[in-house]
Amino acid sequence: MGVTVCFGEWILWKKDAMMKCTNATGSGKTSSAEADFERTKKLKDRLDRLLREAAEVEVELSRADGTIRGVPHYSVIEGRAHELGKQLSREVQQRQMSELAAAQATAAKCPTCGAAARLETRQRDMKTIDGDAGVQELVGHCPRCRRDFFPDARTVGL
Ligand SMILES: [Zn+2]
Questions:
Q1: b/e per residue, 82-117, with b = 16+ CB within 10 A?
Q2: How far is the CA of 22 from the centre of ligand 1 (A)?
Q3: What is the whole-number distance in angstroms between the Cα of residue 151 and the centre of ligand 1?
Q4: What is the pLDDT of residues 74-99, one digit of tens each?
Q5: Beta bridge pairs of residue 156
Q6: What is the dihedral of CA 147, 150, 154, 155, to 10 degrees?
Q7: What's the 147 CA to ligand 1 centre distance in angstroms?
Q8: pTM as predicted
Q9: From the CA of 7, how far away is ligand 1's center (Å)?
C-alpha cells in the first residue's frame, strides 16, 4: 500500500517537474523527461508483476514443501514471507554492487605510496541486515608496497 501511495505522489511530482521543464527550457528536454517517465512506469509495472508472481510461487512452494499446512499460526506465514523479502534484498544488494564494480575505473593510486595499481573485482561475504550476501567489490594490489587496498573515490582512476 505504501508503495502505491508513494508512486502516485511521485507521478504528480514528475508531471509537475515536466511542466516546469517545458516552461523553462522548451520541448527538447520534455521529450527526454517523458521518455524517462515512460521507462520508469514500464519498469515499475514490470516489477509489480514480478513481485506478484514471486508471491504466487512462494505460496505454492510453501504448500509443496510442507512449510504451510492446514491453518498455521500467522507467525509461520509472516516468518516465511519475511525470509523471501530478505532474499530479494540480498539479491538487489549483490546486483547493485556488481554494477558499481563493473562501472568503476580499472586502476587506482596506492593510498600509501601513490603508485599505479590495477583494480580487480573480488567477491566478499558481507553481513547485511537481511543476512549474508556475497557482493563484488574492487580491490587494488600495489606492486611496490606488495599489499592489497580498497580504493575509494579519491584514488580510483589515474
Ligand atoms: Zn604502494
A1: eeeeeeeebeebbeebeeebeebeeebbbbeeeeeb
A2: 52
A3: 12
A4: 999 999 999 999 999 999 999 998 88
A5: 108
A6: 40
A7: 7
A8: 0.64
A9: 48
